[in-house]
């Protein structure tokens, strides 16, 4: 009987037979529907609260993230202030002091030199210097370059030069260079290069394009020019730091040499500030 009543209640047209057992059933049905609807709303609300967090975390790691998002989600190795595009104080009587580091991409002395002297100095006085990263190698008769640690080092040098070409801001290309230098034994493994490019907002595809343009001739010319410049100024050791076109300090075989003023960051900063005030 109950079953019959149930069926009758379901097929009964609306508005008929307001009283009786089937209307009790309808009330029950409405209650149940209401209960289910309430559960759904609570469920959706809980989901809405929980969803955005993981979604936001994912977007920070996404390769589609903008440069700004990537920059904000990472602690940069060097934080140079003010940001690109911000107004710079104008010092009409000041000049940019030439600061140059001559390196080889697979040389442990270059890692120490960038990490302990060049980067901390740049953090403080980047707006007072004209910074150049130059490379050490041997130009060959056929228009190529020979690198002390082999062709892999030449490729590392080329990637660092291309990163500079693509990103004139030293914060970016020095950050990228420092990043791959920390793991210099793996230069130029794709995984390392791609990881450091992502971390420092260097366009990996553009980097690849630069390194392979005109069958690599474009990048080889960049390296050859850099190596020839190093040779012309008489530098042979990685890493040699020059200030105002004079040797300031050399890092060689794990030791600081030729550093009359010492290898201290503070002393180098003082020297650069002094030179920038002279015309
Ligand atoms: C920085 O130095 C290079 C040569 O090393 C020069 O070509 C360039 O014009 C200089 N830039 C500024 C802004 O002084």
Automatic annotation (TrEMBL):
InterPro entries: Interferon-induced_GILT (IPR004911). This is Gamma interferon inducible lysosomal thiol reductase. Keywords: Glycoprotein, Membrane, Secreted, Signal, Transmembrane, Transmembrane helix. Its main location: secreted. It is found in: Secreted. It comes from the Eukaryota. The chain crosses the membrane at residues 33-51. It comes from Sporothrix curviconia. It holds the Pfam family GILT. Belongs to the GILT family.
């Amino acid at each position: 009987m109950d079953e019959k009543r149930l069926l009758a209640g379901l097929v009964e047209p609306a508005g008929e037979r307001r009283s009786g057992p089937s209307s009790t059933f309808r009330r029950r049905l409405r209650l149940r529907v209401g209960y289910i609807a309430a559960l759904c709303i609570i469920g959706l609300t809980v989901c809405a609260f929980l969803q955005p967090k993981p979604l936001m975390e994912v977007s920070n790691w996404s390769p589609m993230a903008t440069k700004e998002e990537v920059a904000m989600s990472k602690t940069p190795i060097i934080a140079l202030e003010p940001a690109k595009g911000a107004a710079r104080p104008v010092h009409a009587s000041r000049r940019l002091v030439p600061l140059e580091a001559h390196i080889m991409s697979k040389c442990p002395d270059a890692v120490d030199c960038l990490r302990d002297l060049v980067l901390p100095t740049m953090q403080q006085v980047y707006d007072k210097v004209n910074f150049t990263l130059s490379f050490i190698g041997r130009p060959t008769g056929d228009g190529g370059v020979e690198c002390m640690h082999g062709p892999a080092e030449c490729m590392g040098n080329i990637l660092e030069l291309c990163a500079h070409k693509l990103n004139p801001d030293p914060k970016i290309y020095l950050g990228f260079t420092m990043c791959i230098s920390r793991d210099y034994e793996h230069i130029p493994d794709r995984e390392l290069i791609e990881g450091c490019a992502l971390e420092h907002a260097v366009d990996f595809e553009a980097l690849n394009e630069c390194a392979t343009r005109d069958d690599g001739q474009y990048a080889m010319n960049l390296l050859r020019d850099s190596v020839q410049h190093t040779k012309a100024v008489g530098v042979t050791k990685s890493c040699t730091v020059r200030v105002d076109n004079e040797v300031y300090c050399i890092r060689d075989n794990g030791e600081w040499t030729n550093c009359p003023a010492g290898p201290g960051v503070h002393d180098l900063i003082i020297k650069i500030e002094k030179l920038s005030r002279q015309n």
